[in-house]
Each structure stands twice: as structure tokens, then as C-alpha cells.
Amino acid sequence: MLALTSCSTGTEATKAPEPAPAPPPPGLQANQRTPCPELPLLQSSALPALLSNHDQVTGLYHDCKAQNASLLQAADEWEQTAWAWYCRELLRIGAPPHGCPPMRKGPDPPAR
């Protein structure tokens, strides 16, 4: 016959750690959530129309490229923040930090 007696011998219950807060959401600005605009169609095959269309497409491309660069930067910053949050929470609850990047000593690498 199996008897469970550990609770009756005065063993104290351990308290579970507080639940971890949710990781911070990525900090995206409204313009980072906007898709790139459609490119203008060519209205004429005349040289002035071609040059005008090329100027419009070039401007839209560079605007969209800058928008995507800022989105990538925000995603990189969020990823670093989320990893830091995750690893702090693992340490807080005493779990092994599997998957955590090694802690760097020194300044952060230069931004892309």
C-alpha cells in the first residue's frame, strides 16, 4: 500500500513565481505600417512623359526604401528588447537560459 505523507510531516509548500509580464510590443510608427504605393503608369511614350514618369517612380522607390529601412530597424530593436526580456524572465524564475544570446561586454555593434 502506497501512502503519501510528505504534507503531514510539516513540509512547507513552495510559492510559484509571479507570472511574467507580456513582452513589450514592437514600437512601430503609423508610416511603418503603410504599404508602398502603386507605381504610376506611363501616360505617353513621348520623352517628357518618360522623364516625368521616371522621376515619379524614382521618388516613390526611395521613399519606400527609407520606410522599409526604418521598419527593419524597428524590428531589430524589438527583437533585441524581446530577447532581453525573455532572458531576464528565465533568470528571474531560475530557469536555464537556453537560447539566450551570450552577454556582450562593450558597446553595441554599429547600426546597419
Structure described in brief:
The chain has a domain at 44-99. The chain is built from 1 helix and no strands. The protein has one helix at 47-93.
Please characterize this protein's 3D structure.
The chain is mainly α and 112 residues long. It has a domain at 44-99. It has 1 helix and no strands. It has one helix at residues 47-93. The termini are far apart.
- The whole-angstrom Rg is 27 Å
Number of helices: 1
Terminal-residue CA separation = 68 Å
Globally, the shape reads rod-shaped
Beta-strand content bin? under 5%
Number of DSSP E strands: 0
Query: Could you estimate the helical fraction of the residues in percent?
Result: 40-55%
List keywords for this structure.
112 residues; mainly alpha; 1 helix; single chain
